Amino acid sequence: MITAGGQRPESWHAALHRLQRDGAPHALATQVTSAGSTPREPGARMVITADAVFDTLGGGTFEYQVIEAARARLVGNDDRPEGGLSLEAFSLGGRSGQCCGGFVNVLIEVFPGSATTLALFGAGHVGTELVRLAAPLPWQVRWHDSRPGAFPDWAAKQPRLACRHAPDPAAAVAALPPGAHGLVLTHDHAEDLTLVDALLARGDVASLGLIGSTSKWASFRSRLGKAGHDEATLARVRCPIGMAAGGTGGDKTPYAIALATLAELLPLTANVERPDQRGLDPAVLRAPFNTTTVT
Q1: Residue pLDDT, tens place only, 24-83
Q2: Residue 156 and residue 116 in contact, taking contact as beta carbons nearer than 8 Å
Q3: 3-state class of 146 per DSSP?
Q4: Which of 281, 287, 291, 293 is nearest to 86 (CA)?
Q5: Could you give the CA distance from residue 233 to residue 243 in angstroms, rounded to a whole number?
Q6: Whether pTM exceeds 0.85
Q7: Domains in the chain, please, with CATH?
């Protein structure tokens, strides 16, 4: 099939690669069994997002039901955990509005997208190394700097990275999604203080790190306390960053500081077990193959 623009539509495997690379929510639907007359054969696949479909399982009401089930899983509207695997059965007759009369099982694999957002403030030497090192990780990175033209040209091509000119620090913080991990390392101490104040005031930041010395944090801690932040809130700030990995005890090059900072941050992004990684019970997957005759 050729589109109106003269190009072939994106295949399911091309779409899957792109969506996985970009950390975007999507579902992969695979026909695993068929009995009787069915539009497609086992192994047929399609990729489904909130607003698009790539490839086909044969069309008609059956395919619409698959799409509807996948999208319900994507937004968590089917009383099951968001993400993960489910095995769905579809009868291609009667209630489905199709006359094939067959029966299929479809495995729906839901990928909720990047589970972690890293909000990085500062496009200096350490910030640049942090962005480079974080590139292979499945995180959405929002890189902010108040200076125009601060971001390197290569950043525009890095997946899951959004570069944002942010002359208003408070507005940049307000635009973050809940549960983001913040790292503050701008070129200006006053801007750092404004950012930490705004991030703490949100109350929903997953973690917060600040670059600087112990004396810098002592000064900030005193001023933030006078601004109304209590001791429990202030204790959530990690400063200097990278201390858990010994990052400030030796090599203080930008690369070393960035490496130690990421080593410190990694366990903070993986402290909750994800139900979507537990898979299907073997009995659930075995049943369709034991009870369905493939024709």
Answers
A1: 999 999 999 888 888 889 999 999 999 999 999 988 888 999 999 999 988 875 655 555
A2: no
A3: coil
A4: 281
A5: 19
A6: no
A7: 12-113+274-291 (no CATH), 116-269 (3.40.50.720)
